[in-house]
Design goal:
By secondary structure, this protein is of the alpha+beta class. It contains five helices and four strands, in the order αβααβββαα.
């Protein structure tokens, strides 16, 4: 029996090897709804320049795939971040995953704004 670390590494390798499929016509509406949901939620608690910065990053990319072991996955890519999670294929679980990733990626994007987007210049009087 594999040790916990071995099992986790095998699972991670399986997820990294997932094959992502073209979005079928019947999935296109789901993807569009999920993109809108993500876009609303990622800025839900932001204001001002942080919100404008995150909105300027554009729409997320959302893909569905299957790992070599046959696990269905949902992948979200946004602003340089990526999240891939196991997915049961239901819209309800996709919405939960989108909400969770929007919250996580919102924190990442705000950090990016303050560090890489030079928001820090505002807090020290303009960078002088």
């Amino acid at each position: 029996m594999p040790e916990d670390g071995d099992w986790a590494e095998e699972e991670w390798e399986d997820f990294k090897s997932a094959r992502f499929l073209r979005v079928a016509d019947e999935d296109l509406e789901l993807v569009l709804r999920l993109r809108e949901r993500f876009s609303e939620r990622i800025v839900a608690n932001l204001v001002g320049e942080e919100k404008a910065f995150v909105e300027s990053l554009g729409a997320p990319e959302i893909d569905f795939g299957v790992t070599p072991r046959g696990v269905r996955v949902l992948r979200i890519r946004f602003g340089g971040s990526e999240g891939t999670m196991e997915w049961d294929g239901s819209e309800a679980e996709a919405e939960q995953d989108i909400d969770s990733e929007a919250e996580r990626m919102s924190h990442d994007a705000v950090y990016d704004y303050w560090v890489q987007g030079e928001g820090w210049k505002q807090s020290d009087g303009g960078g002088t």
